[in-house]
Design a protein that fits this description.
Layout: H1 3-10, H2 14-22, E1 29-30, E2 36-37, H3 40-54, H4 59-70, H5 75-112
Antiparallel strand pairs: 1-2
Protein name: MerR family transcriptional regulator
Keywords: DNA-binding, Transcription, Transcription regulation
GO molecular function, one term: DNA binding
Amino acid sequence: MHIGEFSRICKISKESIRYYEKEGLLKGSRKENNYRVYSKKDIRVVELINSLKNSGFTLFEIRSFLNLYDSDSKCKEVQIKLENKLLIIKDRISELISIQEKLNKSILECEDNPNKKFCNIVSSSHL
């Protein structure tokens, strides 16, 4: 199938398809007239890219998954990558919770001192 049909089926723009190709994530083939053509396997690759992207993976990380997808890799290798990403996400959640607590503390200080000229939002005890 050509890029227009592939774009409709995958529900992504032609520009995204071209970008994925440029980044080495998608390897559509070309006809003699230089038109791009895509297969059912390419649809599965785009579905995997979208799934990983929606799960917070970077394009660099997605590329490493696609390398596993194209090889004879075992689920254990995928599991290790998923567990590593989960650790990163948990760390980020902890950081965000800490930021949230500091912001809440600053908001309370502003509420307690509404007539103060400028609330102390940059205090190291808050942020």
